[in-house]
Amino acid sequence: MQPERAPSAVAQPGSSNPAALGRCVALLQTCKSLPWLKQIHAHAVRRGVPLGHPGLAKHLVFALVSLPAADPMPYASAIFAQVPNPGVFSYNTMIRGYAESCHPRHALDVHRLMLAADVPPDSHTYPFLLKACAKLLSLRDGERVHCRSVKDGHDACVFVQNTLVHFYAACGLFESAHKLFERMSHRNLISWNSVINGFAINGRPNEALTLFREMVADEDGGIEPDGFTMVSLLCACAELGALALGRRSHVYLAKRGLDRNAHVGNALIDFYAKCGSIEEAYKVFDEMDERTVVSWTCLIVGLAMNGFGEESLDLFHAMERERLVPTEITLVGVLYACSHCGLVDDGFRYFNRLTREYGIVPKIEHYGCMVDLLGRAGLVEEAHSYIMNMPLEPNAVIWRTLLGACTMHKRLATGEAVWARLVELDPGHSGDYVLLSNMYAAVGQWGIVQKLRRSMLKGGVRKMPGHSLVELGNHMHEFVMGDRSHPQSQQIYEMLEEIATRLRLEGYMPHTTNVLADIEEEEKETALNYHSERLAIAFALLNTAPGTPIRIVKNLRVCADCHLVTKLISKIYDREIVVRDRSRFHHVTVVFSQQDYTAFGIKIPLSNSDERILVGRSKLTVMLKSKSRCCITNYSQGS
Questions:
Q1: In total, how many domains does the chain have?
Q2: Who's near 56: CB < 8 A, 6+ residues apart?
Q3: 3-class SS at 252?
Q4: What range(s) does the DYW domain occupy (predicted)?
Q5: Domain-terminating residue out of 438, 464, 490
């Protein structure tokens, strides 16, 4: 319900009962439910306090917007409409209520009413307005509010500045947010939290960690971080795969007693899952005093991301037994798990339950999971038909998912049709060129590959270079393919030669079909040997003690050859290796015996041990397990 102004005939406050008014205002201070508040309001009216009395109305509205009720704003709006001349406090309270509700657009409507009534905004008006704009992700409205705050002289207020930083960061303009932060003459904890979180949520974890270090080492003695700071820090650590730093953050939270907070617990589950330490994620979940739907969702999605599809579905069933209602994101995790387990029928059953049992209208993300489910199962034509019959207009991501399936299963005709749609929707996307190029290269059509690459150069389309990160001490070391800029470059390449020698002794032969270039076999072998993740692994082997787990973060998908090499390096050097792949998860389980094992055409002598290998969107984890099944999945190419 949009706010309306009261008619002029509303009763005036002169006939009020001061004693009754005072009692009701006092009762409102302790009011904790909507029925209780309505009783107080009814009592005031019966004792002669007019409906439009501003003294009662402002306290009623303030109490209403402070209630944890689902939507108190219709009642608050009805009260507000009875007041003939509301003051700035009442307007601010209504703006705050709408900004925190599911209808933030109405906060801007109240602001317009406020200006039309010639009520000047104060320093409390703009933070709530900017909060509404941030929820709406409305850059234009937010910029208008920013200009108005400058015009009214409130832009120097620290509360307004903090909300401006938050607003621009929420809209993805983290550089603008940082500029505002740099210009602030006074910064408090909220200022630092806003800018750190702005970088963290916009995929700039390095900047977030740098600002965190500046915050605690400030010239004025530093600012002590709180739970919000640490959640942003954990988000940055998860993005980088900085497990050691995240663990230290966890210890800090435990010492401060903040680890029992549900929001912090959820952030910890998400962090450990994205760093490949699913056991620690489950431990945090198991030790939580109160598990919300978000807690269950974090672990369900985390298990699915790490390749534990069956475990993810089991946890979902346990959540249902707890009578908790899943969210849209929960079902995305469930469908993701079905996709990576190849459970096509189960995936469709869960999808059908979205609307029938949970009342959730499927969104584009859910349809994307279904396309991925069909594509991974090799049902490429069915996936194409599914997209054509979707009730929603498919976006570029949906078509790109299908193009990836066409590349994986070498479906040229369908792939070309999908490419035509992508050119219309998102021309110039480098990933589409790479997928199409890989599809043609996989079937040996090198002429078309060269033509595509010339087209990329002519159109100014640049492929994202592959890089890998490894955490050592308090630093993240970055490597790119063929990188020789690292201070230990000579030792790293010597280690690569040693690794290559030991791999050959194990029976490894390079799987050069992963190099999609029309070059000689020897050049292909050299190119494979210098992939960024191999450089990172060699660096880690040089600089960590024997038996220490190695954790790598890569921004592109791991190729099949690097997957197998990583497996063999883990066996040869007796290391647990986690490679976080930025594209998606693949899950491979291999059982070792005295017999040889052949995968991707490579014969590998095996030993008496069980090994579980996870290659995935966020990880490739080598862990000791007792499993008896063997599952090989297809891989697209990386570098």
A1: 2
A2: 16, 21, 24, 25, 44, 49
A3: helix
A4: 507-588
A5: 464
What is the pTM for the complete model shown?
0.77
pLDDT tens string 598-635: 333 333 333 333 333 333 333 333 332 323 222 222 22
pLDDT digits (tens, 9 = 90+) for 49-74: 887 787 888 888 898 888 876 678 88
Q: Is the pLDDT of residue 4 over 90?
A: no
Give the domain CATH number at 402: 1.25.40
472 plus 562 within the same structural domain: yes
Same domain, 593 and 480: yes
Please write the tens of the pLDDT for every residue from 175-197.
999 999 999 988 999 999 999 99
- Is 492 contained in some domain? yes
**Whole-number mean pLDDT of the chain?**
82
Query: 474 with 589, same domain?
Result: yes
Structure-derived torsion over alpha carbons of residues 133, 185, 213, 173, reported in degrees to the nearest 10: 30
Rounded to a whole number, what is the largest CA-CA distance in the chain?
A: 98
Question: Quick one: angle between helices 396-409 and 364-376, nearest 10?
Answer: 10
Query: Are residues 563 and 635 in contact, defined by beta-carbon separation less than 8 angstroms?
Result: yes
Q: Which domain holds residue 547?
A: 468-605+616-625
Q: By C-alpha distance, which of 314, 230, 235 is closest to 275?
A: 235
Please state, in angstroms and rounded to a whole number, the distance separating the CA atoms of residues 567 and 561: 10
Q: Of 464, 481, 496, which residue constitutes the final position of a domain?
A: 464
Task: List, for residues 486-534, the tens digit of each pLDDT value.
Answer: 999 999 999 999 998 898 888 887 765 555 554 444 555 666 778 888 9
* Tokens describing residue 244: 């050691």
**195 occurs within a structural domain:** no
* 457 and 472 co-located in one domain: no
Q: CA–CA separation, 258 vs 449, rounded Å?
A: 55
Question: Can you give the pLDDT at residue 515?
Answer: 56
478 and 620 share one domain: yes
